[in-house]
Fold each of these.
Amino acid sequence: MSEPENRLLRFGWEEWVSLPDLGLPALKAKVDTGARTSALHAYDIETFGPAARPKVRFTLHPIPGRDDLVIPCSAPIIDRREVTSSNGESEHRYVIETPIAVNGDSWPIEITLTNRATMNNRMLLGRQALLDHITIVATERFLQPQLSFEVYHSARMRQEAPNRSLRVAVLSRENNYSTRRLVEEGEKRGHTVEVIDTTRCYMAINALAPEVHYDGKRLPRYDAVIPRIGASITPYGTAVVRQFETIGTFCVNSSAGITASRDKLYAHQLMARARIGMPNTAFAASPKDTGNLIGLVGTAPLIVKLLESTQGKGVVLAETKKAAESVIDAFRGLKANFLVQDFVKEAAGEDIRCLVIGGKVVASMKRTGAEGDFRSNLHRGGAAKSVRISKEERETAIRAARTFGLNLSGVDLLRSESGPKVLEVNSSPGFEGIETSTGKNVVARLYDEIEHNVRPTPVRRRKATTRGA
């Protein structure tokens, strides 16, 4: 940051300026030496963060008359002051400090936040922001190089937007490794991360102002939500995610993607439609001919799996046809829904977990079942180590995640003689096993994806309208 100490700057009563740290590359500012402090147009003003280091989030329309362009901003609060406007009205305003840039020079200024929607200029430059060697020519305007609002239409808008402080909600009922890492990594990046118990959320469903409430209060506006929905509360948990989607909050995984991944039957149908390799699978609600159901899959040994199974529970290996018939009859007697799958012998009790974030495999590990157990789940005593995957395995994992529309997923693969077979796509994968075994900070990659998605997007130009004669 450099102050223009060696050259005189001449300002007219209106000038183009930039506030780069707020993601505002072009603003028209009114220069007013009668005002002490500068002011910036802001609405939806909301404080967040710890009491010792509070921050403020706000949004603004940088182009007058273009309410379709909304820029979200955040900054540390340095003060709160009572400011009296030119019409004599007093208002308590939050004060932030940020660099202003003019013609290649920049210097820090204090700015108060207030709603200037009715003003022609989105910013007012007070005398405190004007350096000693800035001369004001009150009869002229735009004495410094002119900028253009066209910058808000460019692809550079997203690429060059600053990584502002975000307010992130983690929907989780557990204080486990994954939840703690999400909080730790987010706070390390300057974000505020709040853990919300999904089952304590309730919703106000209406067309004009949908809301999510929690413990008697309306939840604040979040920049992003990270769903960690347990299998036992999938229907209600996805309803809460759907409500955040209705509000317009960026959700790492969509409610539709979570729902599809949890329904094992539907998940297999989706993967079959996308031609993703998986073990031969059969399903029936109440087959009269157990032998025919087994025949649809192949010969024993077979896997019989409850549709609601998680972490390896409700998954049985039937080593003979007779054993398979007995297990199927038992599940049917319990009126449980189940799948029958071919057992991939060559996998030898091992599978590969690929963690896919933003359409890329960011880490992969090989999981081996405990002695005598065909299931490789770490929750059941399995072991894990980092593994290099083939191009085909990588592409299969990415296609599987894309099929469910998930930004974050754990794709479980088996290595078979005919290529990789997808066992499952997990929409709430744990981080402990894969971070420990690979040494990679996968949570940081997740926040990279979140920060990329919540940056402002270039606004489309309005189409010219023609009126009939």
Amino acid sequence: MKRFMVIVGLGIVISLASAQAGWAEMPQRASTTVARYPTQQSEIRPTISWHTSLESGWAESRRRNVPMVIYITTDPCKYCNAMKNDTWRDRSVQQDLAGDFVAIELSPEQNSSTLHRIKIDAYPTTLIGVPEGKIIASRQGYQPAAAMKSLLREAKHLIINRR
């Protein structure tokens, strides 16, 4: 029985490592391209366009007059990959983002000069910023879909009360 449990456990570890390797093997994006997280593995057309530079995302935020969700990640981070696979692929999170926010993904590998100005203590970090350039909310570490929905609702509430 113990041998069977060890084999099953190894199978789970290998399958999780394979899933994470899929994100690591993705080609690197230039800072002006748009990253996308599809809602399902087989889905071709994603609903969220992710800016990979703060400047382009902030410009869209000002143009549309909507807040920004700034997701700060790094390549060798299992919790960042878990958020990419779970949280950002959740349909309800995607719906909230698509309608009411500009999504921006930053990483030290692609945005070192921008992130040099921001003190990041943990990966992943999620920030909510307003078009004027002020950060109004933040969360460190892995955020499951329900926690992200709560953060997005909280941000909308803060923004409505500011007006």
Amino acid sequence: MLKWLKKLAGGGVSTATPGSEPVSYRGFDIYPEPRQEGGQFRLQGRIVQHKDGEQREYLLIRSDLLPSAEQAAELMIGKAKRVIDENGERLFD
């Protein structure tokens, strides 16, 4: 497959913090998963809630690009906390 087509299809995307421990916040788990793009890292991650034996998941992707995976992960955690504060369980509706 051509390199540009592979990128378009989602291939070649790497998470900078694979297997990292989630950050717990108000009954939710936040998984920062910065995505490398053109030498920078896009703010990306998941907000997960376990309730009644089910796992509910919300994918959070923002347009922010940062020079390091650590900065992107830190900013993602802050934005995820704000999303949780503003939406709570409505996040999964």
